[in-house]
């Protein structure tokens, strides 16, 4: 029996851009330590849903909860800023295009937020940066600048930077799809390691093999709805819905 309170609870998410409805009543609960993959064609609303979780793309209807806190609540501007900054500290996000600060070296990229937002001392932040870089196998590049790193290395630093905030959940939006094929595996390995440590993760991906090997549950989205969801063994091997079958024929 599932008595655990979900970590992430998306309730009846609805999002429109003008007359275009891109999320149509989507509900998703993710438990602590659960790893959920979201797959689906381009334009189906995957990024919009992920970005709604930390209110980067505010919903036009429905609610997002992170544990006991409603993320997308209406507050006066100042209170909202304070609220959302706090919420976002708990949510690590890694995008397709590495968003490292180009003028900061790796160490500075990682220590900035823990120092500014959590008030860590330089020494504390450095120790944290070294721990996280070690975890992603990038410790020896701590003094490099982003321009001196490969795409895979940048993405590993981006993951370390997110982890340095000790997030409760990690969101990945096609973290490997801008990488040269030979660089994908090093990033996937880092994500697999996080999975083994039971980090709660929501992963938007085009890599079906990776999703199958790492995730507990897979959601197939199309045109703003969750068409089908289930364990990877079912979704990838024995999907019921015609749209899922069609999509997988092209992507497996
Ligand atoms: P996916 O990540 O699955 O490719 P998206 O969430 O990026 O899909 O986009 C879903 C739909 O929303 C698409 O039709 C896209 O064109 C539209 N969309 C996304 N962002 C905006 C925006 N800022 N303004 C208008 N339409 C948008
Ligand atoms: Mg997308």
Automatic annotation (TrEMBL):
CDD domains: ABC_HisP_GlnQ (cd03262). Keywords: Amino-acid transport, ATP-binding, Cell membrane, Membrane, Nucleotide-binding, Transport. SUPFAM superfamilies: P-loop containing nucleoside triphosphate hydrolases (SSF52540). SMART domains: AAA. It is a peripheral membrane protein. The keyword Magnesium does not apply. It is found in: Cell membrane. Residues 8-248 form the ABC transporter domain. Pfam families: ABC_tran (PF00005). GO terms for molecular function: ABC-type amino acid transporter activity; ATP binding; ATP hydrolysis activity. One of its GO terms (cellular component) is plasma membrane. It comes from the Bacteria. Belongs to the ABC transporter superfamily. This is Amino acid ABC transporter ATP-binding protein. It comes from Antarcticimicrobium sediminis. The lineage of its organism: Bacteria, Pseudomonadati, Pseudomonadota, Alphaproteobacteria, Rhodobacterales.
